[in-house]
Write a structure and sequence with these properties.
Distance between the termini: 45 Å
Helix content: 25-40%
Bound molecules: 5'-deoxyadenosine, iron/sulfur cluster
Number of strands: 18
Largest sheet: 5 strands, parallel
Shape: globular
Mean pLDDT: 95
CATH architecture of the largest domain: Alpha-Beta Horseshoe
CATH class of the largest domain: Alpha Beta
Low-confidence stretches: none
Length: 411
């Protein structure tokens, strides 16, 4: 039998799909294109309504087109979302129970989920070091869909990083909902130090970090470890103290700013990205202005801006929405404009400089694309053979969104 996997959501979902794929292959199933597949596995996420809507439309379309295809639904889903999809799916299963999925074409195994070695098909090697979350931010489904926080033993993680590096991965992503509170025998900072000791030429990135748990030992590890990239995602969510409180984020704007200043003192050239939610219930123009102020002051290198999406089971679901979709879009635009304007100024500083880039793929126009250590996009001409290797690129052009180089200079 043939199967096809469709993944929605974050890198942790991608990593779950790699385990599903590996387990299916072991059971003599063959991965194929969607049209040829007997089984379609949807691995999805309830974090935002838009993602659920996209998946629902896709599942319905497949069922309409070919009734014979077996549809399996898994991932981090809320009961309410599952209920709506029940009639269109043949099986709904929990990803962490993969070794014991009750399917006629799979043999159950008495192993732990994390013992399944992921089938790595991306240029990046994803390593989930923990699962779940204990923070209960009032808008977020993760504590409900993924349960409480659990850290994997450090030695298993080290082994898995070694395996991914051995497979040729040059970009290792260390993943968890809040990696700063990792506690698998050693601290997160010590885990980074141990990973840095692994032999090979690769970069290490990690996400996501909760400001309340960010220790200076982590900043020191970033500074001292050569393979740990100087790139940090530190979700702010809002720049207003009242909104932060309602979001159940236990820090205020001033504390966040101080934390960033301290991190920058230890690692001056760190690239900083953040997550923001616009249009949280009760977010007035005044509250939003405080986020704008933070954006101007902090000078983020990147921001993932999301429009608030009310989710069942979460605390803030009970709160009446006060910001229209139009206004959410406007607020998203305002922040994006500040970000891109600042980026244009920063990107100009790269002109004529040589930067180290990890080549990740080739775009539709035939240009190679990749990322710098600080996760900046770079495009340049070159051969496909360079994909998944490091290259030194001379920057000749820049825009709001990234950098462009003319030729690859000998490494
Ligand atoms: N609505 C909008 N954005 C959300 N996020 C989490 N839950 C929601 C929600 N209900 C965003 C947060 C988080 C990122 C992964 O997704 O910014 O950091
Ligand atoms: Fe969700 Fe992140 Fe908050 Fe956990 S820390 S509840 S995953 S937003």
């Amino acid at each position: 039998m043939k199967y096809h996997l469709i993944t929605y959501g974050c890198q942790m979902n991608k990593n779950d799909s790699e385990r599903i794929s590996s387990f299916f292959d072991k059971n003599n199933l063959t991965e194929s294109e969607e049209a040829d597949a007997d089984i379609i596995v949807f691995n999805a996420c309830s974090i935002r309504q838009s993602s659920i809507d996209r998946m629902t439309a896709k599942i319905k379309k497949i069922k309409e087109q070919s009734k014979d295809k077996i549809i399996i639904l898994t991932g981090c889903l809320l009961k309410k979302d599952i209920k709506k999809l029940e009639n269109f799916c043949d099986y709904i299963l929990k990803s962490e129970e993969l070794p014991s999925w009750n399917l006629p074409f799979l043999k159950k195994e008495k192993i732990d989920y994390f013992e399944i070695i992921p089938k790595r098909r991306d240029t990046a090697g994803y390593i989930s070091i923990m699962k779940g979350c204990n923070n209960f931010c009032s808008y977020c489904v993760v504590p409900y869909t993924k349960g409480r926080e659990f850290s994997r033993p450090a030695k298993d993680i080290i082994e898995e990083v070694k395996e991914a590096v051995f497979c040729g991965k040059k970009e290792i992503w260390i993943l968890g909902q809040n990696v700063n509170s990792y506690n698998g025998g050693i601290s997160f900072a010590d885990l980074l130090v141990e990973i840095d000791k692994i032999k090979g030429d690769f970069w290490v990135r990690f996400t996501s970090s909760h400001p309340k748990d960010f220790s200076f030992d982590i900043a020191k590890a970033i500074k001292n470890c050569k393979k740990i990239t100087k790139y940090l995602n530190l979700p702010l969510q809002s720049g207003d103290d009242e909104i932060l409180k309602k979001m159940n984020r236990p820090y205020n704007a001033e504390q966040y700013s101080k934390l960033v200043a301290n991190i920058r003192e230890i690692v001056p050239d760190i690239a900083l990205s953040t997550d923001i939610i616009v249009g949280f219930p009760g977010e007035t123009e005044h509250h939003f202005h405080n986020t704008v102020k933070m954006f101007n002051e902090i000078d983020f290198d990147m921001a993932y801006i999301a429009k608030y999406s009310p989710r069942h089971e979460t605390k803030s679901f009970a709160e009446k929405e006060t910001v229209s979709e139009e206004e959410k879009k406007r607020r998203e635009r305002v922040l994006t404009e500040i970000l891109t304007e600042k980026n244009l100024i920063k990107n100009r500083l790269y002109l004529k400089n040589i930067v180290k880039v990890l080549v990740m793929g080739i775009n539709k126009k035939g240009y190679l694309f990749g990322k710098t250590e600080g996760y900046k996009d770079v495009i340049f001409p070159g051969s496909e053979k360079k994909i998944n290797s490091f290259a030194n690129i001379k920057i000749t052009k820049c825009s709001k969104w990234g950098l462009e180089g003319k030729k690859i200079i000998q490494k």
